[in-house]
Amino acid sequence: MRAPSASLVVVGNEVLSAKVVDENGPWLASRLHELGVELRSIQTVRDRVDEIVEAILRERPRAGWIITSGGVGPTHDDVTVAAVASALGRSVVRDHRLAEVYRSIHRRLRGAELPEAGLRMADLPQGTELLGDPAFPTLVCDGVVMLPGVPKFLRYQFDRFAPAMSGAPFHLACVFVSVLEDQIAPGLTAVAAAHPGVELGSYPRFDEADHAVKLTLEARDREAVLAALDALLAALPAGSVVRVSRPPLPESSPTDRTS
Predict the structure, then answer these.
(1) What's the structural domain count of the chain?
(2) For residue 112, what is the domain's CATH number?
(3) Which domain holds residue 22?
């Protein structure tokens, strides 16, 4: 089983030139977190085979999954499939099952046969699996998930495949305080050092909110989060806590079932 971690490679000159705003990176980051998958990086690269290959090879040793977004269409600048094949040492072959899927979609939507150029979308790295919805499958080859760049299609294909990536959920506690970061920095340093398995974040605000800083504690181990939360509350100045949000009880908890 692959580790519940991922790196995202967003492919597209249009994103780097700001002609198109990337919706896929933020959406995938949120969904992966919901699934208990740790996102290690988000990279945006040009429509160049060498740059995509470089990004994939750099991330494969440290992420269980590589997710690419964009570059799987039928035009000259859709080079993600060729890059994935190169990175994995695979040849590119025509997948006749996928070709028929695209033919069927084109007939249904356009009432005509798919032009030969459109069948380029059925050329895949050898060994690619067609997962999720058979009528619009997600392309997965040796831990690399190749998603389309159109947000609507990306979200559909990702969600049909998402259960295969799920890991243990993250547990989050939040503490909202009325004092500034410089007044709590030493305490935060001490808590972080004493609880290395819990990620401690500090996020100041400079508006009319009821708090000056939001502190977060997060880990897969709920008890570790609660222990770090107790230590954090003890380290904060008296009267500085505005409110606290604790991680909810697991759904299978007997206490939760009887409440």
Answers:
(1) 2
(2) 3.40.980.10
(3) 5-165
- Model confidence over 172-202: pLDDT tens digits? 999 999 999 999 999 999 999 999 999 999 9
Q: In whole angstroms, what is the distance from residue 76 CA to residue 63 CA? A: 29
For residues 42 and 156, state if they share a domain: yes
Task: Note the pLDDT tens digit of each residue in 40-87.
Answer: 999 999 999 999 999 999 999 999 999 999 999 999 999 999 999 999
Domain boundary among 137, 165, 193: 165
pTM score, whole prediction? 0.89
Domain check: are 44 and 126 in the same one?
A: yes
HEC secondary structure over 51-100? HHHHHHHHHHHHCCEEEEECCCCCCCCCCHHHHHHHHHCCCEEECHHHHH
* Three-state SS sequence of the chain: CCCCEEEEEEECHHHHCCCCCCCHHHHHHHHHHHCCCEEEEEEEECCCHHHHHHHHHHHHHHCCEEEEECCCCCCCCCCHHHHHHHHHCCCEEECHHHHHHHHHHHHHHHCCCCCHHHHHHHEEECCCEEECCCCCCEEEECCEEEECCCHHHHHHHHHHHHHHHCCCCCEEEEEEECCCHHHHHHHHHHHHHHCCCCEEEEEECCCCCCCCEEEEEEECCHHHHHHHHHHHHHHCCCCCEEEEECCCCCCCCHHHHHC
What whole-number distance in Å separates Cα of residue 199 and Cα of residue 192? 8
